[in-house]
Amino acid sequence: MTIVKSIVQVIMTILAAVIPGLANGPLDTTAWINVVILGAGAIMVYNAANIPGWEYAKLIASAVSAVAVLLVSFLDGGLSGAEVIQLVLAAAAAVGVGALPNGSKQQQA
Predict the structure, then answer these.
(1) How many CB atoms lie within 10 A of CB 58?
(2) Which residues contact 23 (CB under 8 A, 6 or more apart)?
């Protein structure tokens, strides 16, 4: 199950790169930075399986990337339409990662 959480984060990252572009035209620099942040979040979610004793490590990793997307967008002068879509997808990724059950300790080893 641990890889499934990473796949959820990767899918949301891909959607964050594609959907805003389809809805609002080409992504600006801030929107691309958000895609990179979400991609880094996918890596963090994948690697969080290696932290023993942290049941919520994957959720925290995903939530950190969602908050980073929000901060970058606000620091750039507010939320554009593309950034709102990305923020919703980042939040959905965090909810999805948190909702999926963790694998057993044998699967994580």
Answers:
(1) 26
(2) 81, 82, 85
What's the CA gap between 103 and 55, in Å, rounded? Answer: 10
Count of Cβ atoms closer than 10 Å to residue 88 Cβ: 16
pLDDT tens for each residue of 47-75: 886 667 788 888 888 899 999 988 998 88
Closest by CA position to 51, among listed 97, 40, 59, 39: 59
pTM (global) more than 0.85? no
Q: Which structural domain range is residue 103 located in?
A: 2-108
Largest Cα–Cα distance in the chain? 47
- DSSP H helical segments within 1-109, as ranges? 2-24, 29-47, 57-75, 81-99, 105-108
pLDDT at 57: 87
Q: How many domains does the chain have?
A: 1
